[in-house]
Predict the structure.
Amino acid sequence: MFDAMVRRRLDRPLDRIAHGLDRPWMSPDRLSASGLLLGLTSAGLAAFALWPWALAAWLVSRLIDGLDGPLARRRGGGTEAGGFLDITADFAAYGAGVVGVAHPLLVRDAPGAPLRWRRDADRSAFTPEGKDMSS
């Protein structure tokens, strides 16, 4: 329901931008690959807590991702391979984005935190409950 309402509002502007991008050297697959590259870049920027840059790269990535469909429709429809590339690139960008955002939040101000988490997990898994084995 919400998606249909947003699509109605975005279809016309995206079609106009796709019209401007409709050049022989610009394919919907290239747009999908560019969106993926920017999405992964955004995740990398987020991993280093460069939040404004990560957000900018993410927004441009999603704009580019929204243009591959209108460009494909302008050219008479997409292909199965193009659709597969698009959805795969989307999932990869979303997954990398989650990891990129989570990384600085989990290890903030904690040098060696992943090593301590591993040590603590190992200790709790192999020690009898309620026993302090640290001494």
In short: The chain has a mean pLDDT of 80. The chain has five helices and no strands. The longest helix spans residues 80-107.
